[in-house]
Amino acid sequence: MKKLIFFVLVAFGLAGAALASEGEGVHWDKAPSRTNDLPALQNGAKLFVNYCLNCHSAAYMRYNRLRDIGITEQQIKDNLLFTDGKVGDVMKAAIDPKDAKEWFGANPPDLTLIARSRSGHGGTGADYLYTYMRTFYRDAEKPTGWNNLAFPNVGMPHVLWQLQGEREPEWETLKEHGHEARIFKGWKQLSPGAMTPLQYDQAVGDLVGYLQWMAEPAQNHRVRVGAWVMLFLVVLFVLVWRLNAAFWKDVK
Predict the structure, then answer these.
(1) Does residue 16 sit within a domain?
(2) What's the confidence (pLDDT) of residue 83?
(3) Do 192 and 82 share a structural domain?
(4) Where in the sequence is the domain holding 236, given as residue range(s)?
(5) Quick one: 124 and 234 in the same domain?
(6) Confidence at residue 82, expressed as pLDDT on a 0 to 100 scale
């Protein structure tokens, strides 16, 4: 038993040392829930097509499914379909996979289910994406010139930097148990973007809301149906309970 405790303590000590040397990352912020907000979803779809679809595909989502969030087929053709494709086509990236691998070190992942696949101990996949898209910073040592607090050493550049501007994190160095640890304290704005910080956070919230919706377009319908089913079962239970009491009231 003593050996087991010793090994557990050693393991936690090594893990703590690794975290201290690499930095403890950043707490995932809670993403706003906008899967029922049609204007927000429409803005998120616009941001996704303009900024994400250049490199990332959404190979399990068709353009015509955007009609579910109030975008007409003509609007899709005029504003969201920039190739000679059809409205019924899936959302494929414009970049060549070979070029992407050469430029970024790997082919950018498909984003159809990204909001469901990125959940972890820090929160939901939406929380991760909301934090990730808001924690890019300038790093001259990286090939792309950018780094990220939520995903250190990420190969992706900050595609929304013109909206957010350029920032760098501010750190505080603390000593704990003989190891130095960097604690994230806040941001220093190096140059302004086209949006204010509040506007940028709202835009990222719209984009993340769209990614949530895209991961399961029928989610809201499923929740509504589920609520009615539960209500029906409650009413049915009451009726069956009273009916059972009526059947057995004369039996002693």
Answers:
(1) no
(2) 74
(3) yes
(4) 220-252
(5) no
(6) 78
Number of independent structural domains in the chain? 2
Dist CA 241 CA 236 (whole Å): 8
9 found inside a domain:
no
Beta bridge partners of 181: 174
Is the domain of 73 the same as that of 171?
A: yes
Residues of the chain short of pLDDT 50, as ranges, are 1-24
- What is residue 34's DSSP assignment? -
21-50 pLDDT, tens per residue? 333 457 899 999 999 999 999 999 999 999
For the chain, percent of residues with pLDDT exceeding 90: 59
DSSP-derived letter for residue 109 is P
116 and 72 share one domain: yes
Same domain flag for 156 and 238: no
Residue 228 lies in a domain: yes
What is the secondary structure of the chain as a DSSP string?
A: -HHHHHHHHHHHHHHHHHHHHH----PPPPPP--TT-HHHHHHHHHHIIIIITTT--EEEEEGGGGGGGT--HHHIIIII--SS--TTSEE--SS-HHHHHHHHSSPPPP-TTHHHHT-BTTB-HHHHHHHHTT-EEE-TTSTTSEEESSSTT-S---TTHHHHEEEEEEEEEEEETTEEEEEEEEEEEEEE-SS-HHHHHHHHHHHHHHHHHHH-TTHHHHHHHHHHHHHHHHHHHHHHHHHHHHHHTT--
**Considering only CA atoms, which of 109, 153, 159, 131 is closest in space to residue 32?**
131
**DSSP bridge pairs for 91:** 58
